Amino acid sequence: MSVTVGVINETNELERRVAITPEVAAKIRKWGWQVVLETRAGEAAGFPDSDYTDCEIAPSADAVLKQADVIFRVSPPDAAFFQAAKEGACIIGFMSPFTDQERFKVAAERKQVVFAVELIPRTTRAQAMDALSSQASIGGYKGTLIAANESPRFFPMLTTAAGTIRPSHVLVIGAGVAGLQAIATAKRLGAIVTAYDVRPETAEQVESLGAKFLDLGVQAVGEGGYARALTPEELEQQRQALKDFLNKVNVLITTAAVPGRPAPKIVTADMAKNMKTGSVIVDLAAEGGGNCELTEPGKTIEINGIKIIGPLNVPATVPMDASLMYSRNLYNFSSLLNDDGKLHFNWEDEILAGCVLTHDGQLVHPVLTGEKS
Ligand code: NAD
Fold first, then answer.
1. Residue 173: CB within 6 Å of ligand 1?
2. pLDDT at 223
3. Where are the beta strands (DSSP E) in the chain?
4. What is the pLDDT of residues 321-356, one digit of tens each?
5. Are 211 and 188 in contact (CB under 8 A)?
6. Contact 24/328 with Cβ under 8 angstroms?
7. To test ligand 1's pocket by mutation, which of 124, 133, 292 has the most ligand atoms within 8 angstroms of CB?
């Protein structure tokens, strides 16, 4: 029996991406797998049902779930989804594995194999599957556009008959995947860009984009190439060193994150309020609570003439290209499960083993079991 991949409509209200694009559906069909989508699953991303040639279009989510052996998703599922999916189904997507972990007990009871794309190892071999990176780069790009749109000033220097307009000064905090794309986008728009990160190796990456690296004297390299959380003393040192610099910038874009923890509060309420009138803060860490104390996730607030924007699910605001990239990530990941048309799990493979949450009726990942990996 051939393998059936299923995709249902995303139910999160901000979600416009789809986990399978027509391009990837056609490639998966070449493995001999079937593809079934709930009607209108791709519509918000710009892919109507008619684009999915050779795929079954089902009238409801249940009609998909009762037959799908493999389910591609974008947003993290709730417990009810695991209940509704077939026993033994394989589910791949963002899982938010650090929150509401009770959900995964339902998946384990139902002998489902759940893969969290957030936990795919950040190795060279897994780069084409790295959904965190593909979606973060969209967030960085769009975050800069949001800032430019909300700013009362131009980004580039303009020399006009009405005189010269000075360029905006943009500071990016957190120079990971999102931060680097935010820097590149702000540079393309002509701003003067400075960036800061606690991982020292980012200095060279920042400079290679033509931006300046701000050294605040605090470094915090953690495991797996990520940052570690700062100690309270280090955080205070960072805030003190940053305070004066913030008065020089017109736009602040923050992207700082530490996996599995709330976003570090790098910018206090006072630091934000003391920025120049007309400044804009785009807090791309809003999903994790925000890097600025004043950020209200999902809202734009204005205090002392300073706008503080906490956008949620930014990649979903570029749904077509975000889906193209995400769907290719899932295709590349699933190619590890395709054994000549059959579904096969090779637990010796470090990529599969690195991101599987449940299989064989057990919670298996250290983020769920609490064991050290
Ligand atoms: P992330 O989203 O976890 O964090 C964003 C950035 O915030 C990181 O650069 C982090 O260092 C920084 N940060 C954390 N706390 C901070 C603080 N208090 N002050 C300032 N900055 C702070 O990170 P990410 O963008 O997902 O990337 C994490 C790492 O993974 C990077 O080293 C990246 O190069 C690496 N990576 C490797 C591959 C690969 O080799 N295949 C692919 C993608 C990413």
1. yes
2. 82
3. 4-7, 34-38, 56-58, 70-72, 90-93, 113-116, 158-160, 163-165, 169-173, 192-196, 212-213, 251-254, 280-283, 300-303, 306-309, 338-339, 342-343, 356-359, 362-363
4. 999 999 999 999 999 999 999 999 999 999 999 999
5. no
6. yes
7. 133
Token representation of residue 217: 């004297």
Fold agreement (4-119+319-361, 136-317): yes
Of the ranges 76-90, 102-116, 214-228, which one carries the lowest mean pLDDT score? 214-228
For residue range 244-297, what is the model confidence (pLDDT) as tens digits?
Answer: 899 999 999 999 988 888 999 999 999 999 999 999 999 999 999 999 999 999
Which of 226, 245, 271, 292 for a ligand 1 pocket mutation test, highest count of atoms within 8 Å of Cβ? Answer: 226
- Decide if domain 136-317 falls under CATH 3.40.50.720: yes
How large is the angle between the packed helices 22-29 and 319-334, nearest 10 degrees? 20
**Sorting pLDDT into bands at 50, 70 and 90, what band is 26?**
very high
Rounded Cα distance between 14 and 16, Å, is 6
CA angle, residues 95, 54, 42, in degrees to nearest 5: 40
Taking the complete model, does pTM exceed 0.90, yes or no?
Answer: yes
**What is the position in ligand 1's atom list of the atom closest to the CA of 230?**
18
Q: How far is the CA of 291 from the centre of ligand 1 (A)?
A: 14
Domain extents in the chain: 4-119+319-361, 136-317
Indicate which atom in ligand 1 lies nearest the CA of residue 225: 32
Ligand 1 mean position, distance from CA 260 (Å): 13
The whole-number pLDDT of residue 259 equals 82
